[in-house]
Amino acid sequence: MAEVKVLTKNFDLQNPGDPVFIDRYQSNGGYDGFRKAIKMTPAEAQQFVKDSGLRGRGGAGFPTGMKWSFVPMDDFKGQKYLVCNCDEMEPGTFKDRALIQNDPHQLIEGMLIAAYAMQMTKGFIFVRLEYRYGSSILDKAIAEAEAKNLLGKNILGSGFDFHLETHLSAGRYICGEETALLNALEGKRANPRSKPPFPQIRGFLGQPTIVNNVETFSNLPHIFANGIDWYKGLGLTGNAGTKIMGASGRLKNPGLWELPLGTTIREIMEDYAGGPSGAPWKCIIPGGLSTPLMLPDQFDCPMDYDTVAKEGSRMGTAGIIAFDESDCMVAATANIMKFYARESCGFCTPCREGIPWIYETVKAISEGRGIESDMTVLDEMSKHILHTFCAFAPGAQGPLLSAITKFRHEFDAKIQASGSHNSPAAQPTEMAEV
Amino acid sequence: MGLNDSHILALRASKNLIKSNAEADSLPAVPAELYEHLADHCTHYANRRVGLIWVMQRLQAYYGGWLPNRAIGEASEIVGVAKPEVEGVATFFNWFFREPVGRKVIVVCDSISCYLGGCDKNLEHLESRLGIQLGETTPDGEYTLLPVVCLGNCDKAPCMMVGDDLHSNITPEELDKLFVSNSKAVLKSGEAVK
Known about the structure:
By secondary structure, chain A is α/β, with parallel strands linked by helices. Chain A contains 17 helices and eight strands. Chain A has helices at about 20-25, 30-35, 40-50, 65-70, 95-100, 105-120, 130-145, 180-185, 215-225, 230-235, 265-270, 305-310, 330-345, 350-365, 375-385, 390-405, 410-415, and strands at about 80-85, 120-125, 165-170, 210-215, 240-250, 255-260, 280-285, 320-325.
């Protein structure tokens, strides 16, 4: 299956050139999708997105039109906000960086369409601080759009206003969780909020708010410019559209490619990423760190939301991380748990205390200090950490549970090779030094 | 309109590194033009607090990379948020520093793709090269070394940032070229973030 140039029609993912600014963007059909959208009523535009089958590209895969449908419309006269989540920090995921650095107007146009469909007049692009170069590209593009009356008041004479600005964050993975992101945007500690109420009803500053991922917004101009049938036809296995697929780890040619949803994992890894870099593959994490491991006999699985889910994992962000036979899965799991232990926001006890304990235990096994009962700790803790507020700890559970299930023999072998004099890994009383 | 970041750097509290809270306290008040610029920004939002992180980022730049105690008080006054709330924000986000840091902060990614690429070996090499451990600052005040989560550059792992510059496909040999010596830790022209 060949690469499909939809989101990447203006640039090359492998050899990005200069960012596409307004003249180049408009000369290649830029803002045509928005022009079509404003000829519809907001309700029609929302229905259009619903009918297109677009699903969130940030990891959860929730249907975008459905998410929007909870925003109060005609009877609501107060301020509503639109927020773009560009807090990309999911390990193994690097697509949003490419989208904002190369084609900033595509995101702006997508946000304009969404804002129009939900009659939102203010918007933010929430950018992680490490992407400050990309944020400066967005700032320049926003200024260009304002100068052409594509942002601001009475856009293109439609009577619709939309003000957009970037917000450079101050760090922390948890900001990618949409309610934590809203707290950060409000100048608060980024602890997730209890749902309900959902952000669509009470979000930023208590007002109706939609948070969507960069890639989700970037799909919208093309859906409106080319139509629903065209968009649905892009997917190979029933999920609509293309996806920026990434692959890193034990591969000859790691990178990013725009491929139809439903391209198989094997095609991505062999045809695009060039095959294994050394030893044969042992397993992959298919879609960013928080998705369960998959084994080589599952590599013919099409990369789409539904089929990967049937295989017991999730497509997530479609950032594949490949491990090979030279990798010790106990040591790799220790690295993965270090990440979650460090990035827990600390609000819920099972996550704040449990994940560092898991990390200490896996690390002890990995370093030859493991004992039999460590596996009981891991089995139990991998369930306890689910008693939390947000999707962070369940995200940590994905790779953990799949590692201790699918690579149990590696954990057991490590423990058996350890001396019998070992004592249990101490449960940390404070945040572990990670 | 107003000040941009280079203006803030030109106005900054001291040309030298500010090494302690006591030293920060001995400096003159924040210039009126900066104070007003920060306060103005907060008026753009339905709630002034929305401007808090933006204000704190600029105060941090003004104080040369960290937030001394007085900056917590100043942010509190400018934005109209209680000091403990500002402190709560300052200690939550990893890009706010409540202790002095070097002129450049080095962040080394240790998430999974960089781990597979050998970031542990690189980090060890960098620690010995700079003569400091993770979390420390070189004696000449040039660099502070910290870990960071995935930098979103996984196809070019392992990677790190030195100040504003992203460095890809790092190896110990590459690090030797970047950091010339321990005492005069000079960074040769790094590739632009791209």
